[in-house]
Amino acid sequence: KRKIAVMTSGGDAPGMNGAVRAVVRMAIAKGCDAFCIHEGYDGLVKGGDMIKKTEWDDVRGYLAEGGTLIGTARCAAFRERWGRLKAAKNLIEKGIDALIVCGGDGSLTGADLFRKEWPSLLAELVEKKELTAEQTEGHGNLNIVGLVGSIDNDMCSTDATIGCYSSLHRICDSVDCIADTAQSHQRAFVVEVMGRHCGWLALMSAISTGADFLFIPEVPPARDWKKGMCNIITEHRKMGKRTTIVIVAEGAQDLDLKKISPEDVRKLLAEELGLDTRVTTLGHVQRGGQPCAYDRMLSTLQGADAVNAVLEATPETPSPVISIIENKIVRNPLVQAVQLTQQVADTIARKEFDKALHLRDSEFAE
Ligand code: F6P
After folding, report:
1. I need a labelling partner for 143 at 20 to 30 A (CA). Which of 178, 181, 221, 361 fits?
2. CA dihedral defined by 251, 256, 261, 266, rounded to 10 degrees?
3. Of the residues 171, 194, 281, 286, which should be mutated to test ligand 1's pocket, given the most ligand atoms within 8 Å of the CB?
4. Which residues are recorded as binding substrate (predicted)?
5. Nearest CA to ligand 1 atom 14
6. What is the ipTM of this complex?
7. Is 195 known as a binding-site position?
């Protein structure tokens, strides 16, 4: 019987539980044993009870739950070879040689490195007599499949990451609430949203709430943005608007890569336009709560395909990441997806903004 393990890693995202449920049930339906690794890579390194055989009924009710019920962690030990050696030993002792990881680009990069090192990790463990040669027999390759779980929607290779639409809904609900109180007092609000180095959440929430102005990392504002923003907001007020909403992505920066802080924007609106202005940092409310229907659907379809990808893999198949492109669930090479995501970040850091925007979609759209 094949033994397939699933884990969640990095920042939690709504829909991760749906992915775990789908992997466990699809694995069992295909005649395999399913295992959940608790607390992300921390659990993989610790082993023992952290790697639990999981049955069909154990994941009942998972679809509608927020966060990740099997836990997650940002793990330092797995970045070191000794940590990966322990992780390999723990998997072999349970007879597991297929790992489905739901996480962001950092977590998936770690998974692929683990796959590359796998033969040498096993050889070292046998040499150190921590495993016997018999234990490693038939487990010469580690199958890794990635599922992109992150609210940021910052990964190249997929149109949507698991969790991004739930987070977008939460931001829109919050901005709607803010707009109620803003219009009562004719106030301005500067709302900071998450997304790390990616402006997707900020851009989509600004469109969805009809915000007056927006700052995102990928498209820094023109040099005279202060004057430009004040002119636009003055126009909107003249048209009868009682509210002003400015959305600032947490990674927003100007053309010199200097952070645009919500407090600076607040001061400007207060001092230049005389608007009574408040700052709201939405913070981790954007990450919690029930997954929306789209994330339940996406995580279920992708979790099921991840199991198929494990069962269809040959030693030559590169590790795939399960994506959605133009409404179709597809598999893309994990390494290429991670590299392209890094390349976009590097291009932005070199201030080649137009090139970065083009890069983000180019490779996988073909
Ligand atoms: O990657 C998801 C995310 O929520 C980012 O949007 C944010 O920058 C970061 O994680 C916050 O991380 P932490 O929860 O560790 O503070």
Report:
1. 361
2. -130
3. 194
4. 150-152, 187, 194-196, 250, 278, 284-287
5. 11
6. 0.98
7. yes
The residue from 33, 42, 152, 305 that is catalytic is 152
Pick the closest to residue 78 from 38, 118, 110, 125 (CA basis). Answer: 110
Q: How far is ligand 1, taken at its centre, from the CA of residue 21, in Å?
A: 24
Q: What angle do CA 289, 209, 152 make, to 5 degrees?
A: 50
Q: Rounded to whole angstroms, how far apart are CA atoms 275 and 259?
A: 23
User: Which string of DSSP letters, residue by residue, matches 20-45?
Assistant: HHHHHHHHHHTT-EEEEETTHHHHHH
In degrees and rounded to multiples of 5, residue 312 shows phi and psi of -90, -10
Which of 129, 151, 192 lies closest to 289 in space, CA to CA?
A: 151
Give residue 196 CA to ligand 1 midpoint distance, Å: 7
Q: How far apart are CA 45 and CA 76, in angstroms?
A: 10
Residue 67 beta carbon below 6 angstroms from any ligand 1 atom: no
pTM beyond cutoff 0.90: yes
